[in-house]
């Protein structure tokens, strides 16, 4: 993780897009990650003036975009980092609209299990997100985390990280 953070800091510049950043980081990680290990990364640049989000998804759980009643997954990108040294990543730009909500999360949320071993799952995550979509970002984050925490009785198997973007 320290190597990843250092690589992101080193390669994240104003002129480098998310796809190029993922390619550069992947090259570094391929020589620094132990065999059988990998890293996922969702890297985006948010331009609030243009209301544009440009991103590349390197094997990470696709963030969820709610736009009205429609649900979109931010999947464009490529393979996870540290496995395929010559992988070419893609990026996509989306125009954000008033009312859009984006949920970025780690698998610790979607894979949280109840006492019977049933996972919370991404579909349930989408449903909770829809129910609280009209709230402010911090309130959405709190409610989603509380719901998952209640589901798994606070016994997360993995890190549970959640970031919410709301567009006014």
Put the structure in a nutshell.
This protein has helices spanning 2-11, 18-30, 107-110, 122-132, 137-152; strands spanning 41-47, 52-58, 64-67, 70-73, 77-78, 92-95, 101-105, 162-166. With 168 residues, it is an alpha+beta fold. It has 2 domains: 1-64 and 74-97, 4-Layer Sandwich (Phosphatase 2c, domain 1), CATH 3.60.40; 98-168, no CATH class.
Question: Any descriptors?
Answer:
32% helix; alpha+beta; 8 strands; 2 domains; 168 residues; Phosphatase 2c, domain 1; 23% strand
Q: Would you kindly provide a written description of the structure presented here, covering whatever features stand out?
A:
The protein has helices at residues 2-11, 18-30, 107-110, 122-132, 137-152, and strands spanning 41-47, 52-58, 64-67, 70-73, 77-78, 92-95, 101-105, 162-166. The chain is built from five helices and eight strands. β1 (41-47) and β2 form a beta hairpin. 32% of the residues lie in helices and 23% in strands. Strands 1, 2, 5 and 6 form a four-stranded mixed sheet that branches. A four-stranded antiparallel sheet has the order 4-3-7-8. α1 (2-11) crosses α2 and α4 (122-132) crosses α5 (137-152). By secondary structure, it is an alpha+beta fold. The mean pLDDT is 95.
Count of all domains: 2
CATH architecture of the largest domain: 4-Layer Sandwich
Based on CA inertia axes, which overall geometry fits? globular
Biggest pleated-sheet summary = 4 strands, mixed
Number of discrete helical segments: 5
Percent range of helical residues: 25-40%
In percent, how much strand structure appears in the residues? 15-25%
Task: Identify low-pLDDT runs.
Answer: none
Distance between the termini: 34 Å
Number of strands: 8
Mean pLDDT: 95
Rg over alpha carbons: 17 Å
Tell me the CATH topology of the largest domain.
Phosphatase 2c, domain 1
Please identify which CATH superfamily of the largest domain we are dealing with. PPM-type phosphatase domain
């Amino acid at each position: 993780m320290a190597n990843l953070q250092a690589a992101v800091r080193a390669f994240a510049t104003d002129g480098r897009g998310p796809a190029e950043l993922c390619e550069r980081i992947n090259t570094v990680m391929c020589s620094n990650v132990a065999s059988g290990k990998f890293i996922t990364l969702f890297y985006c640049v948010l331009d609030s003036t243009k209301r544009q989000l440009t991103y590349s998804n390197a094997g990470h759980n696709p963030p969820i975009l709610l736009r009205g009643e429609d649900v979109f997954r931010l999947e464009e990108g490529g393979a996870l980092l540290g496995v395929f040294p010559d992988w070419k990543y893609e990026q996509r730009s989306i125009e954000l609209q008033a009312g859009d909500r984006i949920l970025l999360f780690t698998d610790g949320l979607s894979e949280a299990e109840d006492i019977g071993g049933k996972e919370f799952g991404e579909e349930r995550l989408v449903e909770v997100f829809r129910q609280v979509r009209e709230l402010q970002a911090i309130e959405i984050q709190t409610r989603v985390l509380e719901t998952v925490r209640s589901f798994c009785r606070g016994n997360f198997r993995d890190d549970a990280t959640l970031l919410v973007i709301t567009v006014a």
